[in-house]
């Protein structure tokens, strides 16, 4: 029996509240499927750690985390204590880059029992996945300021796309699309306005498309695509996007499926040379942190994605099935959290799902 | 009685179909209010012109258009004939920059009689305006490619923000917010991920905010903001955003109000040294062009914004009121276009509105 070593990083805010619920669900699933998951918790990548050390991470973080099969992550960011760009570039964005987690996979699915803010949408109507480039593009640390404090003050920020970086995420997206029943891939672009990087993106999409003649390919400018997520979410199957566009679409998509609280994401290093990282989409949510009412389902669904990544598709499906069952009971029968129109707490909803497993 | 000289540029696709309807409505309004509007039509900034001249604009376009009080614009872009980044950078994006139309004003309002794709939203629930920076930021022509055709191929695209450019659009947005009843301004940022330009944007927002203590100011990262447009559109009053973020939000907002077909925009040079330009948000829409079913309301509403800009607020309000009246009749009573769930044509709906004026 394989043992999987998993690093757990709760981080900030509701990250610390939903991770325990996620671990309970994983423990229950592991028991049921006879898996050995060996968890070790770390307090870095958090504002607390920053306050104590003046840094987001210990110097040997890379060596430490490299020893694990996966990273189970809550959320990072607590702007009252440390500016967001410092905390994020000092932790999560480092992980993605250093561990070459170049695919950020974000499923958007309208689940049974969840009310969509879109009129008349039912479970099954919305079911797509965003494949986000996760290491380059608009998220670059290259640039700077000049003539500071004067009227000539000018700020530059470089977007950087490489052939290697673009092609590998496109290949992943095409392969994923070609394995799904609809075989439909949509590319997010903005080549009419962003006139250097985005036409390049389009070119690479077209070139890769030739290798996947069985995938139906289309493209939308990001402005129109955002509009279509609201008007016609049923059009989409796999959506591939640059780092920034993927970020936007993978918050907008889950909003259309009712709540950001249930949305998971997998930061994947497809080659397996480095650990992959699993974190909910919602972030640290300072507005509701400390109240015990955060929805743990995003974190729990992440656990399912992690199990799948570790080679246990049945256990993964079972865990996700338990989530679906509990959601389907509805706020009357299950202790759903306020974002799901219930009055349950993080702990109660987590327990209900772990029991269902 | 003042005469206003207006340059008309129908452009491509449905631009050519909705501009005549817009002109009819403007003629009717001018008659009613005793205004003299002197229209002159131009065929440049179109794929037809490109095919004949190999360029989007004549060499003296700037001199020509400079003589007008405003530009009444349809849409440009016909990718079958000329790539979008060529046609747009060769026309519309030039106009914005050369005529220093640094504010792009885009109202989003759920109108009576229009069905929102968001469940349970009624007219009045959604009523905000996006103030988009319109000359710099992510839309820059600086950058390039290196190591072309090799595995090292790398593409750079510079985002450029200047203090002058950022501050002037922020000032406009704060002033606008301070004149509206809610006095609420939301800034779109992404300073957690885009770590050089966006923290700068935030700093300038905070600095400008100190001069407008009566405006309630908040900020959202663009990913969360896109989600909140869907989940809580009633939260917003004035939203200020960089060029790219403003572009995305001003398509997403109108989608939440039912259709892109009714959304107008004003590309404004606030100082009045250069002509301002009024164009619907929808674009050339190759998918429905030639069918005569495009919604002319975005174009007509642009006419109202143009009248307001030219100093005729009553005429502007009257024209917009006529649009609201016709929309409120609903698809049963008025010849609404298919995007409004009716079976009317562009011409029929345009005529109904002109008559109502
Ligand atoms: C056509 C395109 C370049 C343009 C833009 O992105 O500015 C359009 O989407 C708009 O919003 O006016
Ligand atoms: C926190 C932030 C830097 C991050 C991102 O933009 O990538 C988050 O929004 C996400 O989507 O994982």
UniProtKB/TrEMBL annotation, chains A, B:
Known EC number: 1.1.1.83
Database matches in SMART domains: Iso_dh (SM01329)
Obligatory cofactor(s): Mn(2+); Mg(2+)
Residue ranges annotated for the Isopropylmalate dehydrogenase-like domain, each copy included: 5-353
EC category: oxidoreductase
UniProt KW keywords: Manganese, Metal-binding, NAD, Oxidoreductase
A GO molecular-function annotation: NAD binding
Pfam families with a match to the protein in the record: Iso_dh (PF00180)
Catalysed reaction, written as an equation: (R)-malate + NAD(+) = pyruvate + CO2 + NADH
UniProt entry tagged with the keyword Repeat: no
Entry's family note: Belongs to the isocitrate and isopropylmalate dehydrogenases family.
Name listed for the protein in its UniProt record: D-malate dehydrogenase (decarboxylating)
UniProt organism field: Micromonospora taraxaci
């Amino acid at each position: 029996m394989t043992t999987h070593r998993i690093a757990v990083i709760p981080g900030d805010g509701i990250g610390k509240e939903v991770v325990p619920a996620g671990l309970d669900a994983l423990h229950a699933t592991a028991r049921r499927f006879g898996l050995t998951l060996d968890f070790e918790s770390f307090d870095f990548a958090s504002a607390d750690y920053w306050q104590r050390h003046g840094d987001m991470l210990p110097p040997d973080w890379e060596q430490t985390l490299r020893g694990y099969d996966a990273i189970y992550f809550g959320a990072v960011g607590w702007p009252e204590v440390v500016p967001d760009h410092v905390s994020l570039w000092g932790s999560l964005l480092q992980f993605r880059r250093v561990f070459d987690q170049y695919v950020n996979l974000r499923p958007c699915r309208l689940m049974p029992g969840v009310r969509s803010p879109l009129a008349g949408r039912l479970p099954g109507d919305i079911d797509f996945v965003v494949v986000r480039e996760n290491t380059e593009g608009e998220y670059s640390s290259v640039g700077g300021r000049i003539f500071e404090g004067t009227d000539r003050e000018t700020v530059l920020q470089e977007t950087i796309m490489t052939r290697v970086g673009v092609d590998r995420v496109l290949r992943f997206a095409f392969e994923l699309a070609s394995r799904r029943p609809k075989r439909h891939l949509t590319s997010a672009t903005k080549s009419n306005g962003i006139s250097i990087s985005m036409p390049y993106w389009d070119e690479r999409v077209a070139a890769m498309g030739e290798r996947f003649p069985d995938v139906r390919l289309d493209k939308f400018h990001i402005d129109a695509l955002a509009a279509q997520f609201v008007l016609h979410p049923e059009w989409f199957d796999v959506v591939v996007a640059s780092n920034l566009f993927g970020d936007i679409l993978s918050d907008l998509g889950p909003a259309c499926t009712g709540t950001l609280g249930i949305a998971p994401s997998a930061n994947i290093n497809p080659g397996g040379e480095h650990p992959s990282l699993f974190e909910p989409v919602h972030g640290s949510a300072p507005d509701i942190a400390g109240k015990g009412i955060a929805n743990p389902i995003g974190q729990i669904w992440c656990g399912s994605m992690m199990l799948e990544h570790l080679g246990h598709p049945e256990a993964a499906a079972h865990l996700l099935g338990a989530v679906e069952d509990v959601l389907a009971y509805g706020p009357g029968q299950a202790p759903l959290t306020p974002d799901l129109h219930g009055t349950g707490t993080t702990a109660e909803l987590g327990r209900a799902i772990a029991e269902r497993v």
